[in-house]
Amino acid sequence: MYNYQEIMKKRKPVIYTTVALILYMIIYYITLNQDNNQIKIIFSNIMGILGLAISLLIMIYAIKKHTSKNQKKMWRLFAIGIFFFILGDSVWFISESINKLDSYLLITDIFYSIQSVLFVIALYKFAFKKGNPRRIIKSIDILIGSLLIVILELKYIIIPVFSLTINNGISSYLSIIYPVTDLIMLIILIMLVLRPTDKKMIKVTRLIFIPIIINIIIDQIYVFEAIYSNYSSGSMLDPLWPLATWILAIIAIISAEVNIKVTENEEDKGGILGVKQSIRNIIVIVIYVAFIIFGAYVFSRYLIIDVLSVGFLIIVTILIIRDMFYSIKMGKLFEKIKVVNKDLEIVNEKLEVESKTDYMTGLNNRRQIMNIYSKLKKHILKESSILSVIMIDVDNFKNINDQYGHESGDKVLKKVSELLRENIRGNDHVGRFGGEEFMILMPDCDKEKAYGLAERIRLKIESTPINIDNSDLNVNVTISAGISCLGASSNINSDTINEADKALYIAKGNGRNQVIKFNEPSLI
């Protein structure tokens, strides 16, 4: 119940304004059914201005509720546009009342034209935010669409109609602006719906289609009536203009009630250009240039001057500019992506090394040395070769940590690691197994050779003083080692590491600082 009341409370402005709109439309059309034409014209003008004024007030209320700066800018421009619409209607009403409409018709059309242009700017600023890398390309697309509309209007509507009428004044030409701006808004709305963006914004965008479609229909009808000088106040068209602005104001309230974020993929999916895209750009530009050369030849040869042909050349020229700009933009992006990819490769290589390396000693970490052991074991069993494993432990390492501190203990481990790395063969592998324990893998090496290497390492470490601070304080450490060997006679389940570890355990039990081979009599 509480949720329902909350929802109804939020939707009250929308409900009230919608009901008021319905009542307004009923009253408006009732006034248009008056028999007295003069009263009908007066009431029609008053109702029209009243409807626009109410729409403006609703819009101002909605703007105050908005939190998004981008949306506020859009609805403010719409509100200013409605204000100019009111000015146009007011001038129309006054001039018509004093029978001087023809003298002031140009002023009214200027106000109406400003309103139409402001509506287009409002939608454009909302659809394509400043700083968006695709803003210029989208703007050129809108320009191309606008030119197509103007060309078609001129070719099939304006020029044929003007040739049949004597009213070729500026007002008649200005009347072209209304349907053109309406269709431009339609193009922008379609772009908004088709691009990847917030679902809530798509819903609001679809709602804006309603007043735009209403405007398109009535403006197209008005153009014909204006050119033929058949339009006058009191027409059944009159209520539809305030209807469109009123609906727009209601949509402003709806959009204020939802949190809308205008988001666009900076680069469309699949927008990364490679060699294929570059070839495609070259082909397209060649085709465009060929069209221009062909068109220029036809013009110069046959002097064909026509709205469609001239418009065709203009649009093709703009398309070339658009495609060249897009190619340059995407080419730069592709270069940036290549640089980023190189940086990513370096980072990935570094991460891969870090994932395999013990951070302190620089040796293979436990996971990596075990991976190497698994691979070597399979190879040894398959090729009937041998692999020796040496497990090494630093003797009494805990005492070093307790007496000198963990930082000194780390220095000991680093030095032992360095000595291990320096004293193994080129094809051997050494890793930190855990704590102060290390493992050496010696492929193609029998137990006796492994023992000789382990003994040499033991003696080298024993005789090497290790500096554990910045002064002359040195310590000597010893190691214990256990050795096991995986040979051709072994099977896949042989646990060579465990065997070497057992030998190490015996070496430490026997007094430390020694090397023990697995299966020696001392292990029995």
Question: Could you list the spans in which at least 5 consecutive residues all have pLDDT below 50?
Answer: 261-274
> Structural class, from secondary structure content?
alpha+beta
In this structure, how is the largest beta sheet organized?
Answer: 5 strands, mixed
* Amount of helix: over 70%
Task: Specify the number of helices.
Answer: 16
Average pLDDT metric = 78
Neighbour order of strands in the largest sheet:
2-3-1-6-7
CA-CA gap between termini: 83 Å
Q: Helix-strand pattern, N to C?
A: HHHHHHHHHHHHEHHEEHEEEHE
What oligomeric state is this?
single chain
* Strand proportion: 5-15%
Output the radius of gyration. 42 Å
Number of strands: 7
Shape descriptor reads: elongated
Plain-language structure description:
The protein contains 16 helices and seven strands. By secondary structure, the chain is α+β, with helices and mostly antiparallel strands. The protein starts with a helix and ends in a 7-residue tail after the last strand. Mean pLDDT is 78; it is low at 261-274. The protein has helices at 2-31, 37-65, 69-97, 101-127, 135-164, 170-174, 177-194, 199-227, 240-257, 275-302, 307-356, 366-383, 397-404, 406-423, 447-462, 496-509, and strands spanning 387-394, 429-434, 437-443, 466-467, 474-475, 479-486, 515-517. 70% of the residues lie in helices and 7% in strands.
